[in-house]
Design brief:
Layout: H1 5-14, E1 56-57, H2 58-61, E2 66-67, E3 89-90, H3 92-105, E4 110-116, H4 121-130, E5 151-158, H5 187-202, E6 205-207, E7 214-217
Length: 232
C-alpha cells in the first residue's frame, strides 16, 4: 500500500481548487457560437411605365429640374388644355445632353425649367386642330422636332427660389422682342440670353431666330413618334 501512496497524493493535488491568484477565463457569450446577421435586402428595382431604350423621363435623371408644362394646362397662348397630363420625356441622348446643361448651371445656383418636351404626334394634331397656322404650330404631316423627342422649350431659374431669369418676354410670346437676333433689350436681359445660349450650345443644342426659349438638338435626325405617355 505504501508504494501507491505517492500516486494517491498526486491525484488529490490535481483535483484541488486552483491557487488563489489564478484566474479562470470564461468564454464570452456567443464567442463559441457566433450568430450571423444577414445583410439588409436590396432596394426594389425601379419600375418604369415606358420603354427606357426609347425614352427618358427628365425628372428621374434629376429631381431639381423643374416642370411648367404649359400645354398640360390652360396657361398657354391658346388658353386650352392640350395634353392629358404633364410629363417630360426625351430620347435618351437628348435627355443626357439636357442633364449636362443643368449640371453645368448648378454651381451658379441655376438650373433648367421645362415648358414643353417631347410632344406626341396625337398632341401635335390637337395643336394643329386648334391653330392650323405653320407660323406658330408645325403641320403634323411634316412633323415637329418636338414629336421626335429632340426639341426643348425651356428657361433658366434660380434653384433655391425657382425664380426665372429675365429673358425679356414670357414663354410663347410672338413678336420681335422674343427673337434671338433682337439686341434692343435691357443689358441684363441680353446677358441672361447669352448665358442661356452658351450653356445650351455647349451641349449640342441649336437656337432658332424667333423664340429665345426653343432649342433643337443637333444630333442625328430622330424618328417621329406617336407614343403617348400614361397618366395616373
Amino acid at each position: 500500500m505504501s508504494r501507491y501512496l505517492p500516486l494517491l497524493l498526486t491525484l488529490l493535488l490535481c483535483t484541488c481548487d486552483p491557487a488563489p491568484n489564478s484566474q479562470i477565463v470564461e468564454p464570452e457569450l456567443g464567442a463559441a457560437f457566433p450568430i450571423a446577421i444577414p445583410p439588409p435586402p436590396p432596394p426594389p428595382a425601379p419600375v418604369f411605365d415606358y420603354d427606357t431604350t426609347q425614352w427618358t423621363e427628365m425628372t428621374r435623371l434629376d429631381s431639381t429640374i423643374r416642370l411648367d408644362l404649359r400645354y398640360a394646362t390652360a396657361n398657354n397662348f391658346m388658353e386650352q388644355v392640350i395634353y392629358d397630363c404633364g410629363r417630360c420625356f426625351y430620347r435618351p441622348q437628348v435627355a443626357r445632353a439636357l442633364l449636362k446643361v443643368h449640371q453645368d448651371l448648378k454651381p451658379q445656383n441655376l438650373g433648367l425649367k421645362m415648358y414643353d418636351c417631347y410632344r406626341p404626334g396625337p398632341y401635335q394634331q390637337r395643336l394643329w386642330d386648334v391653330l392650323p397656322d405653320p407660323r406658330y404650330v408645325a403641320n403634323p404631316k411634316r412633323g415637329s422636332l418636338h414629336s421626335r423627342g429632340a426639341a426643348a422649350d425651356l428657361t433658366i431659374v434660380h434653384l433655391d427660389s425657382g425664380e426665372e431669369l429675365d429673358m425679356g418676354t414670357p414663354y410663347d410670346f410672338f413678336g420681335e422682342e422674343a427673337y434671338t437676333t433682337t439686341t434692343n433689350l435691357p443689358t441684363d436681359v441680353l446677358a441672361n440670353r447669352a448665358l442661356f445660349q452658351q450653356a445650351m450650345r455647349k451641349r449640342g443644342f441649336l437656337t432658332i431666330r424667333t423664340e429665345w426659349w426653343h432649342f433643337n438638338f443637333g444630333g442625328p435626325r430622330l424618328e417621329l413618334s406617336d407614343w403617348v405617355w400614361a397618366c395616373d
